[in-house]
Design goal:
Oligomer: heterotrimer
Largest sheet of chain B: none
Order of helices and strands of chain A: HHHHHHHHHH
Radius of gyration of chain A: 22 Å
Order of helices and strands of chain B: HHHHHHHHHHHHH
Strand content of chain A: under 5%
Chains: A mainly alpha, B mainly alpha, C alpha/beta
CATH architecture of chain A: Orthogonal Bundle
Helix content of chain B: over 70%
Mean pLDDT of chain A: 86
Number of helices of chain B: 13
Structural class of chain A: mainly alpha
Mean pLDDT of chain B: 85
Largest interface: A-B, 43 and 52 residues
Chain lengths: 272, 314, 317
């Protein structure tokens, strides 16, 4: 048994903590979500309020836990949505080739002109700021990323002998894509999904910070930071914890993705 | 060479056209009535009709698109709804702010990332290498807006060395530069994390190549080999990333301008969203996407300047 | 004059070069032959102070009177190009693709001799003429990808000659070239060595090229020198069992076909084992067709320039 790479272990532990806390918030939080205690606002850490309270006297730990859940949910939906559309597009491009492949890749090239934020701004301008629009924008930006990864990996698999055998046996392009190509490109797609999960968490935080993401009363690390920014002279501690949570989550998924790539693609690992 | 430039230029113009179609489509064809979006649900039917007429919404979509592009080429982006002035004027007023922030942010990125990446590569698997790799891993995970808040907490709130935000204008250059320091550092630190990694890995790859050994065999110092032979060759992959990063820096300015209340395009776009000022948002989004596409076009041109092999092939 | 004694290059447990000794008088042309993994290239790099960072180099190396063992990188830099220069196997990859070849050759002249760019380019032009590059003025301004492999190797030779070194180490200079081009590069190296009174260390597994270029041969196996002597003598009357095997394995046009039937090339049985698996005594033990019981355990003595137990016992390998 080979030793697991350090980034995989550290990333795995961080992800387990963040996902565990997010899951726990579904059944238990130290205080009810958004429960205010106006007299106890800006309280310091205590036995009741482990990290203290915010400007409305809400428990910081509770708000951070609820934010973790919201952040995970946004990232999960966006990556699943964008990732599956992108993967299918990549598979189709690889299976059909010719002008379809060119078209998909051109589309992927051009969509890089629209960073997540720009797309979210367009949607917010037309439909007004909302969580759905933020998720759509993050999902959209994932489509070309996955289309590229899926196509590149699928093109390699198409040259394998078992694919030739399947074609010789009369299997169609789409059946081969489903039965032979898809299972064999799962590893790079999952690695990419893990890394994009980290990117999605960052994007959600930024959009929520700018008011284009998670809307009140739902809490979000990004929103907590934008509120804390106005209170910097009064309660600087409020600007610390949400940021640390974002870094933990992003670092965790990033390291986990790197680690997964190292064990699934030894060639890349050696070059690092 | 000439053919290469021509092909790239045509590709560049085509990409800009497609991008403009996407922007126009998202802002105009998606379900919803722009007039209703702008005026709100309680607007009178007369006011809505008048606005539709003014926005040209009664014309076919294709005509509206062609007119928009035709006017945009001539520098006319229509009239802002909330400011009641031409959008082009609004943009011209705020563009210098955004451009200076983007350029200083990019310069800061290069200034940190290139030496850090080369240092890490030359001390491969030693303390400096691990240090750079650790910091860059961390830097990739830190959101620019949080780093900005932390910088403000430290340098403006606690130490009171620098202003926490707002831009006093260029009439007082010292104050203007002081106001730009924290935004530039916030933008550059985060962006340099990715670039330092790319610089390190391409330098490591190159240091294994034979011409590096040849250079050392002629008695050149390690520093000279690194800066005169390894770095120029590492520029090709670095330039690619820098092109992509310029896009990230430009969108980064949108966030940073809002954190530090700097009067640039990024502030304008959020004011316009809040005011439901669709023509202005449309022009600004096109502007930002255009900057990204142009940055990638310039990268293509830079390749040719850096690598003589490309000249021969094209 | 270069004197190497008991030079070893060690990577952890593995000895890539073990106790190699070699004297290179001015103007000498010495060949080092052996299979890949014999340590011949590592010996060349060690003479330049360019063994990998992970390697530990021991023993003594005296270059023009100066002891280089334990020398700093700064001392080595002073030595490179001006006392010892080296050219490598792959002329394709050995030149910086972004620099005009004239500037590549001019660079050490500007750094080491403080010449201006124009003066250095003038010298580069003279060097290009000396190494027989056709149309040398035009070459100066060309990039590596614009000239052929043989011309690139000539550029590298010009680069190596730039600061008038006393010794030129050529590590497999002809391996990557076509036979015809290889022949002319070999001739050029021999010629330059004679004309400039410059010593030549010709490292190659191409016995034909070594035979043409050198007057003396050192045969290496598994990091050790197994036999040395005048080129004709070693090639025509080899004494060490390994040298005999190596020569027998050499493809010879007249030997390939006999009676119309293609004869199999004789080869030395087995392959070179990894460095850390080599026996502590004679490194050829285990593959040697005439092995004695003591060979694997104890180091063989030197007998008339060959290093072999069997020869010491009076046998003929």
């Amino acid at each position: 048994m080979r030793r697991l790479p350090a980034n995989l272990i550290i990333g795995g532990v961080l992800v387990a903590i963040v996902v565990g806390v997010a899951a726990l918030s579904l059944v238990w939080t130290p205080h009810p979500e958004n429960a205010m205690n106006i007299r106890g606002k800006f309280a310091g850490p205590s036995a009741t309020y482990w990290l203290g309270t915010d400007q409305l006297g809400r428990d910081l730990v509770t708000q951070l836990m609820a934010s973790a859940r919201n952040s995970m949910a946004v990232a999960l939906i966006a990556v699943l949505l964008g990732g599956s559309i992108g993967t299918v597009l990549g598979l189709l491009a690889s299976a059909i080739g010719g002008w379809v492949e060119d078209l998909v890749m051109r589309f992927a090239d051009i969509s890089f002109a629209f960073p997540t934020l720009l797309f979210a701004i367009m949607l917010a301008a037309v439909f007004g700021p909302s969580l759905q629009n933020a998720i759509l924008a993050i999902a959209f930006i994932n489509v070309p990323v996955f289309a590229r990864v899926a196509r590149a990996s699928a093109n390699q698999i198409w040259t394998r002998e078992y694919v030739f055998a399947a074609r010789a046996a009369g299997m169609g392009r789409f059946a081969i894509s489903r039965d032979h190509i898809l299972p064999n490109i799962a590893a790079p797609v999952i690695v990419q999904a893990t890394i994009e999960f980290a990117v999605a968490i960052l994007a959600e935080a930024a959009l929520s910070y700018l008011g284009l993401g998670v809307q009140p009363p739902e809490s979000s690390w990004g929103r907590m930071l934008s509120e804390a920014q106005t209170l910097m002279y009064l309660a600087p501690q409020l600007a610390i914890w949400p940021g640390l949570c974002i870094v933990t989550a992003v670092l965790g998924f990033g390291l986990l993705g790197d680690g997964l790539r190292d064990i699934t693609d030894p060639r890349l690992a050696r070059e690092r | 060479m000439g053919l290469f430039l021509l092909r790239r230029t045509i590709g560049f113009v085509l990409t800009l056209l497609v991008v403009s179609v996407v922007v126009f489509a998202v802002m105009n064809i998606l379900p919803g009535d722009p007039a209703l979006t702008i005026l709100g649900l309680d607007a009178s039917e007369d006011a809505l009709a008048a606005l539709r007429e003014q926005l040209g919404l009664n014309q076919p979509v294709v005509t509206r698109y062609v007119l928009w592009v035709w006017h945009a080429i001539q520098g006319d982006f229509g009239v802002s709804h909330s400011f009641k002035v031409p959008v082009a004027g609004l943009i011209a007023e705020r563009l210098p702010m955004t451009i200076s922030l983007a350029i200083s942010g990019m310069a800061m990125t290069l200034l940190i990332a290139l030496p850090a990446g080369i240092l890490a590569a030359s001390r491969h698997r030693k303390a400096a290498d691990w240090g750079v790799m650790f910091l860059s891993q961390l830097g990739i995970a830190v959101p620019a807006f949080w780093l900005s808040i932390l910088l403000v907490l430290l340098f403006a709130v606690k130490l009171r060395w620098l202003p926490p935000g707002h831009f006093p204008g260029w009439s007082d250059p010292v104050a203007a530069i002081r106001a730009l320091i924290l935004p530039t550092v916030a933008l550059g630190l985060v962006q340099s994390a990715v670039l330092a990694r790319v610089t390190r890995s391409s330098a490591l790859e190159l240091m294994r190549l034979d011409f590096v050994r040849t250079a050392r065999a002629t008695g050149l110092s390690r520093a000279r080999v690194l800066w005169h032979h390894v770095l120029p060759n590492a520029l090709v992959p670095i330039v690619t990333i820098v092109g992509m990063q310029f896009a990230a820096v430009v969108t980064g300015t949108i966030v940073i301008e809002n954190v530090f209340s700097l009067p640039g395009l990024g502030r304008l776009v959020f004011q316009s969203i809040a005011n439901r000022d669709l023509p202005t948002v449309q022009a600004l989004v096109m502007m930002f996407a255009g900057i990204v596409v142009t940055a990638n076009f310039i990268v293509d041109l830079l390749y040719v300047a850096i690598d003589p092999r490309l000249k021969a092939r094209t | 004059m270069i004197e190497v004694s008991n030079l070893s290059v060690t990577f952890g447990q593995a000895q890539a070069v073990r106790d190699a000794s070699l004297t290179i008088p001015p103007g000498a042309r010495i060949g080092i032959v052996g299979e890949s993994g014999s340590g011949k290239s590592m010996l060349g790099l060690a003479l330049m102070g360019m063994a990998p960072d992970a390697a530990q180099v021991t023993g003594s190396l005296i270059v023009d009177g100066a002891e280089m063992s334990g020398a700093s990188e700064r001392d080595w830099r002073r030595l490179r190009a001006r006392h010892i220069a080296m050219i490598f196997q792959e002329p394709m990859a050995a030149l910086n693709p972004l620099v005009r070849v004239g500037d590549t050759v001019a660079e050490p002249l500007r750094i080491h001799e403080g010449l201006s760019r124009d003066a250095a380019l003038d010298r580069a032009l003279a060097l290009f003429k000396e190494v027989g590059l056709p149309n040398p003025e035009a070459r100066l301004r060309q990039f590596p990808h614009e000239i052929s492999g043989g011309q690139r190797q000539r550029v590298l030779i010009a680069l190596a000659l730039a600061c008038n070194p006393g010794l030129l180490i050529a590590d497999e200079p002809t391996t990557a070239l076509d036979a015809n081009v290889a022949l002319r590069v070999t001739e050029l190296l021999t010629d330059l060595s004679v004309r400039r009174q410059m010593s030549l260390l010709f490292i190659s597994h191409d016995l034909a090229a070594v035979a043409r270029a050198t007057t003396e041969i050192v045969v290496m196996y598994g990091g050790t020198v197994v036999e040395r002597g005048p080129t004709d003598q070693v090639l025509n009357a080899p004494r060490h069992p390994y040298t005999k095997g190596l020569l027998a394995a050499r493809p010879r046009p007249e030997g390939l076909r006999q009676g119309g039937v293609r004869r199999r090339l004789p080869t030395i049985p087995g392959t070179v084992p990894p460095l850390e698996k080599l026996p502590p005594g004679c490194r050829f033990a285990g593959r040697c067709p005439v092995e004695l019981p003591q060979c694997a355990a104890t180091r063989p003595p030197v007998v008339d320039n060959a290093v072999c137990h069997l020869l010491a016992e009076g046998g003929a390998a």
